[in-house]
Structure formats: C-alpha cells, structure tokens
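HUMAN: Spend a minute on the protein record below and explain its fold to me.
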Amino acid sequence: MRIGGYEVRGELGRGSMGVVFAARDPATGRPVALKLLAGALDPARVARFRREGELTARLAHPGIVRVHDAGTDAQGRPWIAFEYVPGARTLADAFAELGPLERVRRVAEAADALGHAHAQGVVHRDVKPANLLVDAAGRVRVADFGVALASDQERLTRTGAWVGTPSYMAPEQLTGGPVGPPADVWSLGVVLYEALAGELPFAGDSLVSLAASMERGAPPLRAADLPPALGSVCARALAKDPARRYPDGTAFAAALREALAHPQAARSRRRGLLAAGLLAAGLLAAGLLAAGLLAAGLLAARSGDTSEARSDPT
C-alpha cells in the first residue's frame, strides 16, 4: 500500500484522530512514521489535523520529533510524515532504568525542547510521559503536538467531564482559562514529581475528586540523594497562578540544572523543603481550582456546550 508516495510497511499505532504507519520514502529510502487522519472527514477535524502538521513543521529542535512532509491521499484524507524514531520508548519506560538524578536530567531535556516550541509561539498542552519519547541514544524527544495546535477545541463538556489527561493538565486548562507556556511547565512539573515520587501529585477520576486531591496537597517526595533545591523548583512549576511558574520550558530547564549543580545539606532539610513547597502549591491551587471548575460547569450547562477537549494518543 502507498500513501502520498510512501510505501507503507505496517501499523505502529492508532488513536481517535489517526493511524500511524511505519513507511518508507522509495526515492531516498528514508523511513518515516506516517500519520493518516482516521474517521469522519468533517472540516473541523481536517483543519485541526493539517494545522498540526503545518505548525509542527516550524519547530526545528533535536528534542522534537520533526515533520518531513504532509499531503492528502486519493480519498481526501490528510497525512503527515513524521521523523521515524527507531527504538523509541516512552519516558516512563525509560525511567525504570534510571536513577533519580538521571530522571531529572531527562525532564530538563524535555523542558529544553518545549522551550524551543514556546519561543516559536507553540504550546503543547498535552505534556505527559506517553508524549515524551526516548530514542535509542537515550535522548528525549517531544511528540504529538495535535492538541496544542487546536486549542480552540479544548473545552469542558456540559456535564463537567473531560477527555485527555486531566492528571497532567494545569488548573487553567481544567477551568477553560487562557493557556500559555506555563501550562506546559505545570504538566512537566507533574511528570517530574511522578518520576521522583513514583506517584502523581494530584489524582482523581472526576473534577470533584481531582480538586479534593489538590486540596490535600502533594505528598512529600522521599527519594534519597536529591538536591534540596529541587523541592522549590518543583513547587514553583506547580504553582496555581501561571504567573508564578517558570515562564517557559527554557527557564524550567535552567532551574533544574541549577538545582542539580548545587547539591546541598541534609536529608531532613531536603524533605522539609520538598514537602512544604509542594503542599503550599497544592493548597493554593485547591480553592481557586474548585471555584473555577464550578463556574466552568455552570457556564457549560447554561450554554448546552457538548464539545470535548480531547487528546490524540497518536
């Protein structure tokens, strides 16, 4: 089978927005990961899919999966040919083989890549371990900018439910507020916390339970041999007010590397700083988030809005 002149070799995966195939450019022999829009070809879905390719193609960074080409097949379905990353696995899988400090370094690599996107005016908006790949050389590669490039599609449903990855979403995403680079900083802060603690800082299967988890605050990190400054870095990344977080991925990466470069002091101080900083961030987030979620739910109920925010796992 051929799509856009590419020889399709097999399926790599699929999601609600598309199917990803392993393919090859017969002219150059270059392997690609070819993403084809699946399902209904309504104008909104087609426009969103094409916009993903167009704007991702603007990003040229070694930590971001590149776009090589894009087009439309004989049936009118758009496709995007992405860089093929051999031996790729998710960051979560890679973490299983890494110690705490190496995990922090990998998160800093992801922050660098996101910082490049932020400088180009692109916000990912679905940062999570599944969208952070590690290649065969051990380098982190940020993938799947689909949701980021269709932010006008991100809304709560009328019932207050959502689809996507709420445990990694910044409070302003959950409440339907303006979203900028600090939202990615929050999400990567959650990834950092999870990498070091082995659990999410805030979790829940509904808006109510997620808000309750934030009200209780994040449990203290107990990983040994961590520089105490990481506590304040993580707490700032998880600040409720976007203006109090790092302004973009580049600043977050710099703070992480600064913390790694200056290990200090005793474990007791380290634990106290991590616990206090993260608990404060959680308590600050809780009240405002709950109010925002209630307002968003009431607004959606009045307007009859049934549209969904969704995350494309491909």
